[in-house]
Each structure stands twice: as structure tokens, then as C-alpha cells.
Amino acid sequence: MKEYRVKGLTCANCARALEEQIQSLPYGEGATLNYNSGKLRVHERIDLEKVRTILATDGAYIADDEQAPKKRNPLLYFVGASIFLFLTALVLERLDIDGVSVVIYMAAIALSGYKTFVKGLNNIIRFRFNMDTLMTIALIGAFGIGEWKEAAVVAILFGMNEYLEGLGMERARRSLDMLLKQAPKEALLISNGQTHVVPIESLQVGDVVLVRPGEKIPSDGVVIEGKSSVNEAAITGEAMPIEKEKGMSVYGGSVNNEGMLHVQITKQYKDSSLSKILHLVQEAQETKTPLELFIHRFAKYYTPFIMIVSLFVMLVPPLWFEASWHDALYQGLAVLIVGCPCALILSSPIALLAGMTRNARKGVLVKGGVHLETLGRVRTIAFDKTGTITKGKPHVTDVIAYIDENKLLYIAASLESVSSHPLAQAIVQKAKLHHITYKQPEQMTTRTGSGMEGKVDGKWYRIGNERMFDHQLFTEQIQKDAEKLKCEGRTIVFVADEQRILGLFGIADEIREESKKVIQQLHRIGIRRTVMLTGDHKKTAEQVAKQVGVTHTFAQLLPEQKVEKIKELMKNDTVAMVGDGMNDAPALAHAHLGIAMGKGTDSAIETADIVLMQDHLGKLPEAIVVARRVNRTIRLNIAIALSLKATALLFTIPGWLTLWIAILSDMGATIFVSILSLFILWEKRTI
């Protein structure tokens, strides 16, 4: 089977119809067209020209195909032109130029709904009942009663919904491409004392590679020579660099900060941690089912039911009760008009569009109506720690000085001023906050994996972790202070001169100011569980969890372990995952709903269903409240539409149903659900 990327798919149902047509071709058995991932798999011997022709009937095409149209989706322009024509017709109606306005309404309908109308007619001929069939019946019903304006509104709204759905899904499909850009492409293979640049796919277990400062480690392995700090945020979400030396494991995709490392490969790239992340995201994209399919399933039964009822009303009274054929046909036509699904079709899209607009005003980008519906059903929210609940940037939380504190900050900042290490920058920033003026050291020597020493004002000082110092320097008080910071999950940096320890710094990831308040608000609006998932150490995670008030905490998790936790939570609740890093992408993709921070990695933002554009959690509770209101409105709209239609149908029993009552029930329901949906746009205090 060969695989192709397809662009321009407009809906899940359309993709299924295209798939069936492709499967009917010679060698088409087993062909699959996945709407979520936009991937087409076909036999190598299938006639691709015929496949292109089938795809083109829905405006889709094979990406990177020389014959593919290199243009934007024309549906947007058609809908825009339809709106212009619709407004023009309204003006002409005001001027009592009805004949011309009807022609313009028809032109607007043709631009927005001609493809749907053609597909709907084909479905009717083949006895297939889906959204296209519903739309076609709605348009035919509107034509039959002369409601050109209503037909134009329905066609335009459906066209807008179709375009937005396709646009949101296409953005989600790009998530895998964004992830692939994060992966290293080449490695420096050491062979017979020489280095050679090779593709990472060619690396075998046992090969030794050289990783220079600033480079990505090509695949999972073990350090056999060298010392350095390694940033593993892409894999574990750990904000703090991890010191690596001989015998320690490293993950593919993590970044070497300063020293030279010789790494022996323990897993081929296809089996590495980074490759697993890419696979997990791809798997999730290809198995997630859009909730919009509900209306298609409903239409499968609703439309045939209305047609059967209409036929019953037309035939039974004349054949069995000697009623007038004229009256029976009249009543049957009225039933068909009552059965026009305009109100049902509008029950959802207007409310969803209003909800998405309302959230967009608050800086919450929802990529599709299905995701807004899901947000309203969420009862458990899982958060990544680093960059989500915390800022993802080390800062000094504790300064324990055994000399004057300002002098300690001066010495430490002077030594660290020449380093780009995140911990060094945190200490320099602390000195700046205290308005300490520092200077670069006169001499400097770096000890990879431990720290550095340098001369400041003619005197030698050292700064680094415990390995940098003789343990005889650690008095009982220093050990007690250090142990206290360790218990609080702090990373410790010591400062000493040639005789004694001068002080120590406790460094941690800074908690976002709004995190505690947001967690409290979420609990207040009925979120049952708030869960923190992190690759950080258990003590650090527990300290953060205690401060912000989440109900459950799981620490030291790799991306695949986060996915497993998400799957466990999903067994009992609708679960949202909030994250910002590349390592969060699999969990974002597997959860019922993925929510990304606005300044997170491109892969997280593209994979997620919702993006908090302001890069903080502050608007999340209100977004959930709006989503719940949208869901309540949709349910109420459907109930009202069906109730009005059911009431009108009951009028057929005594023979009271007239065309006017049928028109009023259909138009009344349509107008009512539209107005009710637009109320969502009204601003009011929500939490």
C-alpha cells in the first residue's frame, strides 16, 4: 500500500463517500481515506488519475502532486460572495423589487450550496441520508414554499460551517509536520577515530556518536565519555538541565548544553523516545472520531421517518377512510414542510459559532465546534507542570548567606555573568532584582558537570553543585540547610571561597501567579478532578501541587506514561489535557480535548484543539462556562425544534394542519433557535 497526504477534505462524511468510490475502482479494495489525518492509503497498482478525479469532485487533492491545484479553498470566496448577494437581495426587497431579489437569492444559494445540493440529490437517488441529504431537503422545502431568503440563510450558514470545519482540521493535521521538524536529521558517527556525518536512521545499536554543545542527541543512549548538562524538556518536560556524565542515560531529541559527549546508541531512532512521541501523535490523529457525526447518524433516521409519515398521510386516508385525495395530498405536503430540517440544522452551528466568538474575544482560540462541545462536558482536567502551572523558567527561591547577603549575590552574579546556563541566569536575575552591581571575573575556569571557579577582585571563588566542593567544608548547619532545600524540591547551588562555604541558593521553577486562583475556580464550577502530570521529581511536584491545590499528582512521567495516565482518567470522565511542550503533544492528542498555552511549542499548539492565546490559564474557567452554556443552548434548540414539529404533526389527526401552520412551525422554530443561540454573545458575569 502507498500513502499520500490529501488536502481539501471538507467533512468526515464526504471523506467516507470518497473512500467508498475509491474502493470501487480496480485494485481499490482495502483503500482508506482518513479524515482526521488527511491520509490516503491505496494499492500501488490503482489508477491514480481516477483517484484524483474522485477527490476533485469534493475539491480535495493529493498534496505535493504536480497536478494538484495550488490555490486556497474556494469555498471561502463562494460564501463571501453569497453573503454579499444576500445583503443585496435584502435591499432590493425593501425597494419592492421582488422578482430581481428572488433571482439574487437563488444565485447566493447556488454559490454556497450547489455542491451540497448535487450531492444531496445523488444521496436521495441512492437512498443515503446524511447532512447533505438534510440540506437538500431543506432547500427543496424552502423552494417549494417560496422561502428564498430562508434557503439562502441556511445555505450560507452551512457553507461557513463546512469551511471552518475543514480549516480547523487542516491545522490539526499539520501537528505531525511540526513535530518532525523538532527531530534531529543527522549525527556525527565516530568510527576508527574519525567522525562522519550520517543520517540518524542509519544509526545502529552500539554505534558511538559525538554530540557537541548546542546539538541534539540523535537517539537514546548512554554517555561513555564526557560531562555536560542536558536539557530534556522536549522529552520529560523537566525545566532544569540534568547533569550527565559517564554511565548515565540520555534521550534522543534532548539538547546538550555545554560539554562534549560521546554517546553509545542503545536504541535505533525508530525505537527512541522522540520517535515514540511522533508515533503516539499520529496514532491519536487517525483514531479520534469527530462528534459532528452525531447529526449525520440522527439524519439517517429522521429524514426517512418524515418521508414515511408524509406518505402515510397522503395514502391512508383516501384508501381506507374514503377521504378526499386533494385534502390528503395537501396534508401530506404540509407534513413535508413541517419535516423540513432547517431548524434542526441551525440548532447547533449558530450556537457553536457564537460560543467560539465569545471565547475568541477573551483570547481563547477554539479550533472547531466539536471541541467547544467537548469542553462543555469536561469534568477532569490534567495539567502539565512545566510552562503550564509554572513558568518553565528557573528562579531563585531561597538565599542562605553565611556572609553579607549583598556580597554573596555580588560574588555569585559576577561568576555566573559569563555563563548562559539557565541556573546561572537565575542567579544573575536575582542580583539584578536586588540592584546589585556585578562585574565579569578576571579569570575563569569551567568544570563541566560541577560548576566553575573564577577570580573576582583578586580573590578566587567557586560556584556549583555539591560535587564541586570538598565535603569537609559542609558544616552541620550547611548540611541541615541543604537538606531542607532538597526536601522542598529545590536545586541547590553553593558558593565558596578557598576556605569555606559562603552561602547557597535554592532554585526552582516559578509558579504562575494565576495558577492557584484558576484551580480554585475550576473546582467551584464543578470540575471534579484537577490532575498534575510532570516529568519532574516527586518532591518538586508535590510542593507545586500543594501550593496550587490540584487534587492529584503524578511525577517522573515520560510522554508515553503521561498518555497512559490520560487513558486511565478517560475511563471514568471526559478529560482535557493542558500543556505547552513538545513532550505534551501525545497526551494532548489522546485526551478528549487538548488545550495548549499560547507561547508553547509549535507542536503542542498545532496538536491541541484549544489554544489559550494569552499564555496563561486565567481564561480557562470562563471558557468552560461558555462551552457549557453552548451545550445547554443546543439541547434546548433541538428540543424546541422537535417539539414544534411534533405539535404541528399532531394537527394532522383532526385534519387541522394547513400549509400556513406548517410554515409557521418551521420558520418559528428556525427564528427561535437562531435568536436563542445569539444570546450567547451577550456578555455577563459567568463565574
From TrEMBL:
<dbReference type="InterPro" id="IPR023214">
    <property type="entry name" value="HAD_sf"/>
</dbReference>
<dbReference type="InterPro" id="IPR036412">
    <property type="entry name" value="HAD-like_sf"/>
</dbReference>
<keyword id="KW-0813">Transport</keyword>
<feature type="transmembrane region" description="Helical">
    <location>
        <begin position="301"/>
        <end position="321"/>
    </location>
</feature>
<dbReference type="InterPro" id="IPR044492">
    <property type="entry name" value="P_typ_ATPase_HD_dom"/>
</dbReference>
<dbReference type="GO" id="GO:0046872">
    <property type="term" value="F:metal ion binding"/>
</dbReference>
<dbReference type="InterPro" id="IPR018303">
    <property type="entry name" value="ATPase_P-typ_P_site"/>
</dbReference>
<dbReference type="InterPro" id="IPR023299">
    <property type="entry name" value="ATPase_P-typ_cyto_dom_N"/>
</dbReference>
<keyword id="KW-0479">Metal-binding</keyword>
<keyword id="KW-0547">Nucleotide-binding</keyword>
<keyword id="KW-0406">Ion transport</keyword>
<dbReference type="InterPro" id="IPR006121">
    <property type="entry name" value="HMA_dom"/>
</dbReference>
<dbReference type="Pfam" id="PF00702">
    <property type="entry name" value="Hydrolase"/>
</dbReference>
<dbReference type="InterPro" id="IPR008250">
    <property type="entry name" value="ATPase_P-typ_transduc_dom_A_sf"/>
</dbReference>
<dbReference type="InterPro" id="IPR027256">
    <property type="entry name" value="P-typ_ATPase_IB"/>
</dbReference>
<dbReference type="InterPro" id="IPR059000">
    <property type="entry name" value="ATPase_P-type_domA"/>
</dbReference>
<keyword id="KW-1003">Cell membrane</keyword>
<feature type="transmembrane region" description="Helical">
    <location>
        <begin position="659"/>
        <end position="682"/>
    </location>
</feature>
<keyword id="KW-0067">ATP-binding</keyword>
<dbReference type="GO" id="GO:0005524">
    <property type="term" value="F:ATP binding"/>
</dbReference>
<dbReference type="InterPro" id="IPR001757">
    <property type="entry name" value="P_typ_ATPase"/>
</dbReference>
<dbReference type="InterPro" id="IPR051014">
    <property type="entry name" value="Cation_Transport_ATPase_IB"/>
</dbReference>
<feature type="domain" description="P-type ATPase A">
    <location>
        <begin position="183"/>
        <end position="282"/>
    </location>
</feature>
<dbReference type="InterPro" id="IPR023298">
    <property type="entry name" value="ATPase_P-typ_TM_dom_sf"/>
</dbReference>
<feature type="transmembrane region" description="Helical">
    <location>
        <begin position="333"/>
        <end position="354"/>
    </location>
</feature>
<keyword id="KW-0104">Cadmium</keyword>
<keyword id="KW-1278">Translocase</keyword>
<feature type="transmembrane region" description="Helical">
    <location>
        <begin position="75"/>
        <end position="93"/>
    </location>
</feature>
<dbReference type="InterPro" id="IPR036163">
    <property type="entry name" value="HMA_dom_sf"/>
</dbReference>
<dbReference type="Pfam" id="PF00122">
    <property type="entry name" value="E1-E2_ATPase"/>
</dbReference>
<feature type="transmembrane region" description="Helical">
    <location>
        <begin position="634"/>
        <end position="653"/>
    </location>
</feature>
<feature type="transmembrane region" description="Helical">
    <location>
        <begin position="99"/>
        <end position="117"/>
    </location>
</feature>
<comment type="similarity">
    <text>Belongs to the cation transport ATPase (P-type) (TC 3.A.3) family. Type IB subfamily.</text>
</comment>
<dbReference type="GO" id="GO:0008551">
    <property type="term" value="F:P-type cadmium transporter activity"/>
</dbReference>
<dbReference type="GO" id="GO:0005886">
    <property type="term" value="C:plasma membrane"/>
</dbReference>
<keyword id="KW-1133">Transmembrane helix</keyword>
<keyword id="KW-0597">Phosphoprotein</keyword>
<keyword id="KW-0812">Transmembrane</keyword>
<keyword id="KW-0472">Membrane</keyword>
<protein>
    <recommendedName>
        <fullName>Cd(2+)-exporting ATPase</fullName>
        <ecNumber>7.2.2.21</ecNumber>
    </recommendedName>
</protein>
<dbReference type="GO" id="GO:0016887">
    <property type="term" value="F:ATP hydrolysis activity"/>
</dbReference>
